[in-house]
Amino acid sequence: MAVARSFAMRNLLRAALPLVLLAGCSSVATKKKFYEPITAELRSGNSAAAARMLEAARDKNKYAQKDRLLYFIDAGMLNHYARSYDASNTKLHLAEEAAEELFTKSVSRAAASLLLNDNVLEYSGEDYEVLYTNLIKALNYIALGAFDEAFVEIRRANLKLELLEQKYADAATQFQQGSPDDTDRVEIDYEVAKVRFHNDALGRYLSMHIYAADGKMDDARIDHDFLVQAFRTQPHIYNFAIPEVKYYSQDRAILSVVGLIGLAPVKEALSLRIRTDKDLGLVQVLYDDPQNKGAEYGHLPVKVKADYYFKFAIPKIMPRPSLVSVIRVLANGKLIGELQLLEDVGKVAEETFAAKKSLVYLRTVARAITKGLAAHKLKKKMDTGGLSGWLKKAAVDVGTDLIENADLRSSQFLPGMIYVGDFEIEPGTYDITIEFYLADGSLAGETTYSGYEVVRNGLNLIEAFSVQ
């Protein structure tokens, strides 16, 4: 009897196996494990080795073709930290080109088929990632003494911010229209969240200093005023005191120091559930994570034919806080001051992601409803009773959950915070040291520029980083 029962069980499992394998093949989960040793190497201060490890990971196909933009940004950042500025610019230029091409392409594909999961689409980058490709390139060009090229990058960053709201308004229109071939469309009003970021402090800071170095003091003053406005008009991003910046000294030179601290946010999955109400024509979205389980995330007026309850997930921005709390600057061993916070990249990421997130949320809800209802019908068809029917229905549930993984792709090595300091100092040659301290007062690391020449009329701007 036991042998017969075991034989029957094997047959049932064999019958259900193709469905489980199909579900497994449909998995589109974001893979990030390979980043861990690279990040560890970067934290140890060996940025050149981290850049080589990234190239080795790419050679091992850790970056799919659809994720090539991520590779360009990651490689560009690691080369920047390694002071391989030309190599960094090459990668970041490719990243910017790819972002412009892939955004339009991804929106078109997503609008043409509701059933496509975002993970399947080519990654076109988040707006903060693309913004900082220009600003990091500007820092590269400043290090190379190519100020005109740095200006071009800053202007391109400013233009991206000006066009951001229209970019997502156009995408919303395309999603709303959908495709006449997509018979599974769920009617949802694609309203895009308002973009509340239009003036970047880092871009203003850099252009202010370049203008001053060129002797264009009126232009430098205008950019200084724009920097002040960035703080006054965007308190949701710049919710801290404006740093004391200087671009002119009556009788001395200005030494400017930029500190790139920590690592930018990444994405994590926000688990949600959909509950449909056919009588009210309502879709209620509920939190499914342990902290907020059952609380309402939102609701939408959507006509549905039956009452169902199923899960899905969307990405959310999660910060990676830095352990660095104090950054000191020394000239020939003498303390000349500390750096002050200019930009919280996490805040910029959250705000620029808001417009895209609203569209991702609505499209994911529509897709989840469509796939959930299709899965429900399929389960009813497969409900042949007994263990065989149960296994088949379970396989459908597994498959539906797997293909609804949130798209968690994001660049890994952008800085999390940007600090600056402008110090009046006598022209001359110095050993400039930037020290990074943790909250407990211990030294986390330091960077020294030996024999750095500070000039009276010109740009004296150096940079250091700590990803602790």
Give an overview in words.
With 468 residues, this protein is an alpha+beta fold. It has one domain. Helices cover 47% and strands 22% of the residues. The strands form three sheets. It has a four-stranded mixed β-sheet. A four-stranded antiparallel β-sheet has the order 4-3-2-5. Strand 2 and strand 3 form a beta hairpin. The longest helix is centred in the last third of the chain and has 38 residues.
List the helices and strands and how they pair.
Blueprint lengths: L1 H24 L9 H9 L3 H13 L8 H14 L3 H28 L14 H17 L3 H31 L23 H13 L3 H17 L19 E9 L1 E15 L4 E6 L8 E6 L7 E12 L3 E8 L2 E5 L1 E5 H38 L3 H18 L13 E9 L2 E11 L4 E12 L5 E7 L2
Parallel strand pairs: 1-12
Antiparallel strand pairs: 1-9, 2-3, 2-5, 3-4, 6-7, 6-10, 8-9, 10-11
In whole angstroms, the N-to-C terminal distance is 63 Å
Q: Which class do the helix and strand fractions yield?
A: alpha+beta
How would the global form be characterised? Answer: elongated
Domain count:
1
Largest sheet features? 4 strands, mixed
Number of helices: 11
Radius of gyration, rounded?
Answer: 26 Å
Uncertain runs: 1-27, 389-400
Series of secondary-structure elements, N-terminal to C-terminal: HHHHHHHHHEEEEEEEEHHEEEE
Short description:
The protein is 47% helix and 22% strand. The chain is an alpha+beta fold and 468 residues long.
Keyword list:
468 residues; alpha+beta; 4-stranded antiparallel beta sheet
